Amino acid sequence: MERIAGVARLRERVGQEKGRGAVVGVVPTMGAYHRGHLSLMRRARRECGLVVVTLFVNPTQFGAGEDFERYPRDLEADAGMAEREGVDILFHPAAEAVYPPGFSTWVAVEQGVEQGLEGASRPGHFRGVATVVAKLFQMVQPDRAYFGEKDYQQLQVIRRMAADLDMPVQVVPCPIIREPDGLAMSSRNRYLNPAEREAARSLFRCLQEAQRLVSAGERAAAAVIRAARAVLEAEPLVRPDYLEIVDPETLVPVELLDRPAQIAVAARIGSTRLIDNTRLLPD
Amino acid sequence: MERIAGVARLRERVGQEKGRGAVVGVVPTMGAYHRGHLSLMRRARRECGLVVVTLFVNPTQFGAGEDFERYPRDLEADAGMAEREGVDILFHPAAEAVYPPGFSTWVAVEQGVEQGLEGASRPGHFRGVATVVAKLFQMVQPDRAYFGEKDYQQLQVIRRMAADLDMPVQVVPCPIIREPDGLAMSSRNRYLNPAEREAARSLFRCLQEAQRLVSAGERAAAAVIRAARAVLEAEPLVRPDYLEIVDPETLVPVELLDRPAQIAVAARIGSTRLIDNTRLLPD
């Protein structure tokens, strides 16, 4: 595995491999790898001739008071894990190279899938995400790009951006990887103390409760949300942010569960904010 | 010359030529060709193995009440001219293909070169320009892109966007082409009646007057602007919009002409809005 910090060298390597006809896959990450990230790398490895993992803690997608400063950074550990997955290139640009002085261009999805959920709770977040992913796509020029469904709305924002801007890249969604007790893998799970970690199980449990009701025939989204919310609220350490059932494509809230829908939850546990989601299937 | 309306066919052709090692040049246009456009095509022909001209009257860069509806459209005449310049591909997508239902992603240069001048007079204009040029760059995947300096601020916006978003394209500025009496070539010149056409000469004459003063030693931008403005105001048919002297890179107004600066003018003549600009050189 080659570690590359500069765009010129990255382009040289990618150009060489494209010249040989290689399909180029990219896995954009912020580091702090867990099995979720590794599953993306593994899938890219299976499907692509050249696998590029980008590692960049993107400041523009963090809001004021969020965890940009304390976001876990461990390049050596991450590089070791990526190498063991057979990644070809770990691209880790410096912040000054990504956002040089005078930087002033932004890519934003507006009046669409970025509204509600994370978009409402984290103003400017998806503008930062769309901008940095657009930049990384231009740097790497990938044929395929792998994103986890844990950040479900992010995935839809990136799909929308790539389609709207005619980017010649296929966005590949990959399933959420969970701990044995159901907690969705997240780099932020390491912030949790043991009591908080225990309480964090309620995020997945509330999604399960929602699916249980739907499978039992409940079709009113409001009733499902009420029951799922009760699971969260039974945990004194958990402060729910949102719990919503939305159309899987448009992310517009749905009222009647007569088709597959996405349920998404965000909650704070101590100083940690976690999200999770799943597809609700009315059999 | 091949005329292409669909992105899939465009990508196929460009991919073939890139595979053979061709440098790909693009000339983005809205049609209604004059010698300015032809000079861009000619330069691209000299420098590139594959020359793509895009022809698309982009609705998102026109404001309410602007001339989108009456903007001159003549595909057959334009195609003939492009073919005579040795253009390889004329790409003319349909509006529904460029902006399909649900389109919601925008590229914008903010708090920089898009402010002032056209950006102030035409709110949203450069967002439309940046978005469509970003899309065209993704569709064509050019190595070089040719733009005229007549739209000087547009050129700076596109340079900024391409650099900020790490687009692997070289933006090539090309000099203004003028009529024998100095009027800058523009597709909108054809809107002018004979009296308006005569009055339109004052735009270039006011730029010449500015350069005359600077060459004579005047260093106060305000004094230069005053004299240049008097040239415009001597024409009863001309209603000045702005007349400014700015830094050629940042487009921030300058007060002291101790270095090269850009003078830019916009004015209405009848129902037609024209712009022009030139570099002021203190010897």
List its traits.
homodimer, 283 residues, alpha/beta, Rossmann fold, Pantoate--beta-alanine Ligase, Chain: A,domain 2, 2 domains, six-stranded parallel sheet, three-stranded antiparallel sheet, 10 strands, 38% helix, globular
Secondary structure elements and their pairing?
2 copies of one chain form a homodimer.
Chain A (H helix, E strand, L loop, with lengths): L1 E3 L2 H13 L4 E6 L5 H13 L2 E6 L19 H10 L4 E3 L3 H4 L6 E5 L7 H5 L3 H16 L3 E5 L3 H13 L5 E5 L19 H6 L1 H15 L5 H13 L4 E9 L14 E9 L2 E9 L3
Parallel strand pairs in A: 1-4, 2-3, 2-6, 3-4, 6-7
Antiparallel strand pairs in A: 8-9, 9-10
Structure description:
The structure is a homodimer of 283-residue chains. With 283 residues, the first copy, chain A, is of the alpha/beta class. Helices cover 38% and strands 21% of the residues of chain A. Chain A is built from ten helices and ten strands. Chain A has helices spanning 7-19, 35-47, 75-84, 95-98, 117-121, 125-140, 152-164, 194-199, 201-215, 221-233; strands spanning 2-4, 24-29, 50-55, 89-91, 105-109, 144-148, 170-174, 238-246, 261-269, 272-280. In chain A, helix 7 links the parallel strand 6 and strand 7 (170-174). Chains A and B meet through strand 5, helix 6 and helix 7 of A and strand 5, helix 6 and helix 7 of B.
Quick overview:
Two copies of one chain form a homodimer. By secondary structure, chain A is α/β, with parallel strands linked by helices.
- The gross shape of chain A turns out to be globular
User: How is the quaternary structure best described?
Assistant: homodimer
What kind of sheet is the major sheet of chain A? 6 strands, parallel
CATH architecture of the largest domain in chain A, by name, is 3-Layer(aba) Sandwich
* Tally of structural domains of chain A: 2
Low-confidence stretches of chain A: none
Radius of gyration of chain A: 19 Å
Question: Order of strands side by side in the largest beta sheet of chain A?
Answer: 1-4-3-2-6-7
Number of helices of chain A: 10
Largest interface: A-B, 28 and 28 residues
Name the beta content range of chain A. Answer: 15-25%
Structural class, from secondary structure content of chain A? alpha/beta
Helical fraction of chain A equals 25-40%
- CATH class descriptor of the largest domain in chain A: Alpha Beta
- How many angstroms does the end-to-end distance of chain A come to? 45 Å
Instruction: Give the overall average pLDDT of chain A.
Output: 97
What letter string, H or E per element, gives the SSE order of chain A?
EHEHEHEHEHHEHEHHHEEE
**CATH homologous superfamily classification of the largest domain in chain A:** HUPs
Q: What's the CATH topology label of the largest domain in chain A?
A: Rossmann fold
- Kindly state the number of beta strands of chain A: 10
